[in-house]
Amino acid sequence: MKQIVLLGCAVLTALMLAGTGAAGDQIDTSNILVMGYYDTGTEIDLSQAIQEFDYVTESTGQYVEGKLQMWCDHPDGRKVGYIQDYERRDDTYTDILFASNVSVRVKSDGWIVAWLTNDQNIGDIVLWNDANSGSNPSDTTIGKAIWRITDRVGIDYDKNGVNYYSYKYPAADRLLIGGRMVTGDQGETYRFLIPSAPTLYAANHTWTAYLYDPSATSSSGYYASGSIKMDGEYVFGKSTTPGYGSGLYEYARYYRDITDMARDARHTIYITSHDYSSCKSVLKSAVAILYQSG
Q1: What distance in Å separates the CA atoms of residue 146 and residue 107, rounded to the nearest whole number?
Q2: Spatial contact of 245 and 215, defined as CB atoms under 8 Å apart
Q3: How far is residue 225's CA from residue 181's CA, in Å, rounded to a whole number?
């Protein structure tokens, strides 16, 4: 079994997926895209652990299973205080939750397993660390869900101790995750390469945008904007326009399938943000690529 090392997402990072899914032997694995499993090394009080779940689907004397909603608007992924429940796009609230659901099972013997289901996007593994703050992702949504349980029961957590496995694609042995963020009046470039691997299972570009403009008059000339170019072509661009003046304009997450992009070619993503006076813009961009190395 190979241990996965997550170095952070400021630059592109390659993760080795574990060679076995033994930790999921007692779970119906037919609907698991990617699982992370973690041995705390100590017994867990299930009566404490269950308090962290947003939804509980099963509870026995040996384990608790359910879902944790990993909110994009909080650095811990929790629904604490005021957070953005639903995405706001083009000055309009949607019915899209600004969160990723992570399924979790906590066992009394100390094991914690968490996973994304087959109907989810591989981009759901990206943890945004509060999408309107100036920080890059530092873990995965799966790893952070495990952390939430350990934090609840008072056990230390080491993200480098989380091992990952894909039940949907058991031959997959590499996962690339990485990206950049900008805020204020900035521009950032990062590059990635889709390997010419025997099998590419999933490749996704995902990003979040936060645009806030409290300007009260059309003559103010202040606005917030953000844009993304991939290989020189715009894939995203929005602006509040001068004098928008209604507060929050955009706070949303987007996905783009990139499995058809050229292999063994270096691709470039350029992200920019602009804000003036009391306006605020934050743009975060990341890629997630799941494949078999050879």
Answers
A1: 12
A2: yes
A3: 14
**Bridge partner list, 113:** 37, 105
Contact predicate 161/39, CB 8 Å: yes
36: CB partners within 8 A, 6+ apart: 113, 114, 115, 140, 142, 143, 146, 162, 163, 164
Neighbours of 276 (CB within 10 A): 18
Q: Distance between CA 42 and CA 56 in Å, rounded?
A: 22
| φ, ψ (nearest 5 deg) of residue 125 | -80, -15
Measured CA to CA in angstroms, residue 199 lies from 119, 195, 260, 292 at distances of 20, 9, 13, 5
- From first to last of its 294 residues, the chain has per-residue pLDDT tens of 233 333 233 344 555 565 554 454 578 899 999 999 999 999 999 999 999 999 999 999 999 999 999 999 999 999 988 889 999 999 899 999 999 999 999 999 999 999 999 999 999 999 988 898 877 777 899 999 999 999 999 999 999 899 999 999 998 888 888 889 999 899 999 988 888 867 899 999 999 999 998 864 445 567 889 999 999 999 999 998 766 667 899 999 999 999 999 988 889 999 999 988 788 999 999 999 998 887
Three-state secondary structure call for residue 160: helix
- Take residue 194 and report the two structure tokens written for it: 């889709």
